[in-house]
Write a structure and sequence with these properties.
single chain, alpha+beta, 4-stranded mixed sheet, about 60% helix
Length: about 220
């Protein structure tokens, strides 16, 4: 199985973490932003990351890929079967994919992608608005819903946790972090999920890349 994309995308990162937690071996093939092998273009006709290939089966979108992975390897079950738990898991995935990712994307795109990869200035006002207005709302919400177990659904790791946490990595890359004093539950939750082996190695590599970019910007 192949996943096409780059882990700087929260959706690629989420897909790879999900596969790792399922014990499914996948190969990451670098693609996106106009590059990638022909299979990527076939899997993702609009060039969006991630793309996916399993033999002659090609598809894109992290939710579609994860649905496939859950079906081909049901155990361990990361999308609950109980109706209410399943619905809540899908809600949290949507929360992560749309609300959290939009906030992180506004910061990461305008502060990293646009100036570093597209050669044009980012929208600083949009990035600042995301950090100063939207981000506090996200962590306020998380602080109220995280159970004592540290997992959002069924007191165990599910897709909900994997999806919600992934975009916070991009926020961290641009210096937007959860305050452990004002939001201790949200801070501890994100840190604990990112410390899992499914995430830790990827995140460490990304942080090294970002640090290298920042070092290049420093005056000699």
């Amino acid at each position: 199985m192949k996943v096409f994309g780059n882990t700087m995308s929260p959706f690629v990162r989420k897909t790879l973490a999900f596969a790792a937690e399922k014990g499914i071996e996948v190969e990451l093939v670098q693609a996106g932003m106009g590059s990638g092998p022909p299979e990527f273009k076939q899997a993702s006709p609009f060039g969006k990351m991630p793309g996916f290939q399993d033999g002659d089966f090609l598809i894109s979108d992290s939710t579609a890929i994860i649905t496939y992975l859950e079906a081909v390897k049901p155990d361990p079950n990361l999308i609950p079967a109980e109706p209410k738990a399943r619905a809540r898991t899908i809600w949290y995935e949507e929360f992560g994919d749309t609300i959290v990712a939009a906030c992180g994307g506004a910061m990461f795109f305008n502060r990293v992608v646009a100036p570093r990869f597209l050669g044009r200035p980012g929208d600083d006002a949009a990035a600042d608005e995301a950090q100063q207005v939207q981000f506090p709302k996200l962590v306020d919400y998380l602080e109220t819903v995280i159970p004592a177990s540290g997992y959002l659904v069924e007191d165990r790791l599910t897709l909900a946790d994997i999806a919600v946490v992934s975009p916070f990595v991009n926020m961290g890359h641009v210096g937007c972090a959860i305050n452990p004093t004002s939001h201790p539950k949200a801070f501890g939750y994100v840190e604990a999920i990112l410390a899992r082996p499914s995430y830790a190695g990827m995140v460490a590599k990304e942080r090294a890349i970002i640090a290298g970019m920042q070092a290049q910007k420093e005056p000699a």
